[in-house]
Amino acid sequence: MRKPLVAGNWKMNLLVGEAIEMIEALKPLVADVDAVDIVVCPTYTALHAVSQALGNSNIALGGQDAYVKENGAYTGAISPQMLMDVGCTWTIIGHSERRQYFKEVNGFLNEKLKFALAAGLRVMFCIGETLEERKSGKMNEILTRHVTEGLRGLAEADFERVAIAYEPVWAIGTGVTATPDQAEEAHIFVRNVVKDQFGGTISEQLRIQYGGSVKPENAAELMAKPNVDGALVGGASLKADSFAAIVRGAL
Ligand code: PGA
Predict the structure, then answer these.
(1) Shortest CA distance to 148 belongs to which of 99, 122, 120, 113?
(2) Domains in the chain: how many in total?
(3) What is the pLDDT of residues 14-23, one digit of tens each?
(4) In a mutational test of the pocket of ligand 1, which residue from 9, 97, 208, 239 has the highest number of ligand atoms less than 8 Å from its CB?
(5) What is the CATH number of the domain that holds 36?
């Protein structure tokens, strides 16, 4: 059985004080949850403080991105090693907002993924089609490319530390959620692409999270689908009660 993975992607939100307040409220709400891997991904500036607030809780810390160098003259960038230095065990790579606003493409994201894994992080690797791509019948082609180009060259052992987040771009921050059937269908397709490339054992063990307007009201239904192994949550992860409700939706 794949253990559900529920992560909060705070994006460019929450100042340090707000982040600490959120964590202090969240901890008791999920303290009894063993059956779900829980991760929060604050902004870089809040990572250290959040790490301290998390203490020995059952909530792991993640970055939202990581560069492909350990250190050096790369103004504005943060390395996987730096994320680990402040307590991160996870990072997100390839979020659609990185693809859209920062022009990150599959080949570069593949480098980032491999570099983060080599450094020792676990990675949620995001994929997903835009509305235009879905409407023009290109969804499967896009997902195939995101998977084959994005995961290219990974070794079998790497997959113990990789999850895929299927996030249809049209569902992110829009309030429009994929239906459970739409999510399940895409997850099955993605799992089959992984199977073709890396074999059945890896594809069966790989966790595929759904992301895109996940809320307490729809989380349980989405994650009840056999191939939806958790959620990557944006807006609804900023508040302790809604994020906790989503975590519980995975149980
Ligand atoms: P959303 O964001 O839940 O606000 O739609 C999801 C994501 O971008 O990871």
Answers:
(1) 113
(2) 1
(3) 999 999 999 9
(4) 9
(5) 3.20.20.70
